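Lab channel / #folding
Pinned by the channel admin:
"Please post every new chain as: sequence first, then the C-alpha cells as a reply. Keep commentary short and put observations after the output so the thread stays searchable."

First post following the new format, from NK:
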Amino acid sequence: MALTFNRGIHLNEEKHHTENVPIKLLVPGAKSEMVYPLVQHLGAPCKPLVEIGQNVKLGEKIADCDAFVCAPIHTSVSGVVKDIRPHLTVVGTIVDAIIIENDGELLEHESIQLRSGFDDLSKEEIIKIIREAGIVGLGGAGFPTHVKLSPPPGKVIDTIIVNGAECEPYLTTDNRVMLEEPVQIVTGLRIMLKVLPEARGVIAIEDNKPEAIEIMKKASADIPNISVEVLKTKYPQGAEKQLVYSVTKREVPQGKLPMDVGCIVNNVDTVIAIHRAVFRGRPLMRKVVTLAGGAIRNPGNYKVRLGTMLQDLVEMAGGFVGNPAKVVVGGPMMGIAIFDINVPIVKTTSGVLFLTENEARIPPEQNCIRCGKCVEHCPAALLPTELYTDVLREQSAMFLKHNGLDCIECGSCSYLCPAKRRISQAIRTIRRVELAKQKKQDG
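Reply from TO:
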C-alpha cells in the first residue's frame, strides 16, 4: 500500500509533456555572459573572491563567506570576470552578481580531481568536500547540504530520505535523473549514510513513476540499509514535513525541522551532486531544468550550466511558439511569475513554465462561500480562511496567532477554492514580511 500523509489534494499532473523526454545537455556559446548571483541559498550571502578583469577556469570558486550556513559559488565556464554589479534574479530580487564572459573553452580548474572511492574518507572529510562543492538543496529550498549533514549534539538522525516525489505539475527533472542516473543516486546516498552511520536510507517515489520505482529498486537491491518506498500520488507529497510523515509517521512540530524528529530530506539531484563532488571532484555547476508550457517550442528536460541566462536557454531550446502570456519559475503551484527573462539559472531553479493565454487564465475572485474546502484539505492543518481575513484586515498579530508562519505556501487552498480567492498569494506576502521581522529580531 502506498504511503501518504493527511489531507492534501489531487491535481492535473501535466507531466506527459516532458516525462518521456531524455535529459539534453545545453552548453552556452563563446562570448555569452554568465551571471552568478551571490545569493543562491538559504543563509548568509557570499562575497566575491575574484576581481574585475580576472581570468577564471571552470570549477573555480568565485564567491564564499565565513558563516556556517553558507555555500560557495563556482564558475561553470572559463573566461574573464567582466563586472560585479547588482542584477535581477529569478525570484524578482536584485542582488550583487559576478558577470563572466564565457570564452567557450571550458578549461577546468586544477582543483577538479578524480577520486576512486569514498571508503578511505572520514565523516569530516566528506562534509568538507560537500561544503566546498557548494551543494545545496536542489529541490527549491536551497538549504546548504553540509549543514543538514551536521546535526547538533543530541540530535540523532536515524532516517535519510531521498525525495523523489516531484509532486508539482509539469516538472519532471527528478523522474528523469532517477531513470538516467540511478547508480549515482544510490552511491550518493551511501556517502551520506557513511556520514550518519546510525541512519537508514529511504528513496521515496510517488506511484505515478512506476519505471523510476523499478529502476531504483534494482539499483539498491543489494544494499541492506537502503530501501525504496512507494508514495501515493498526492500534492504536496514532496514537502518536507509531509514526506517525513508519509515515510515515518512522525509529525514535525510547529517551528521545528525534520532533524528534530530524526530525519534528513534531500532531493535526488542533490544526492547526485554529492556523488559528483566526491568521485569526480566537481563542484555544483549545473542544474537539470524542465522547460514546459504551450509557448515553448521544444519542451523538455535540460542539463544547464549555472549562470546561463534564461533568454539564452530559451533560444537554445528552440525559442517560443508565440509570446507567452505568463512565465513562471518553478511549478504552477509554488512557482513565481516573472516579468523579465533576462535572469540567470541558479542552484534552486527546478523548472520554467512558458504558459499560453489559455494555460495562464485565472477566473476573477468572488466572495467566499464558506464551503470549508481550504480547511479540509490544508496539508499543514491550518485555517486558510482565517489567515486570509487576517491579511485583508492587516492584523499581523492574529495571523501569527493562527499559526500563519506554519503555512508551506503550497497553494492547495487557492487551487481548490470555488470562489477563486487568492488565498495562498496573500498569505505568502505577509508570511515573508513576518519571517523577515523575526530574522531581524534574531540578529
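NK: The first helix runs from residue 123 to 132.
TO: also worth noting, The first strand starts at residue 24 and ends at 26.
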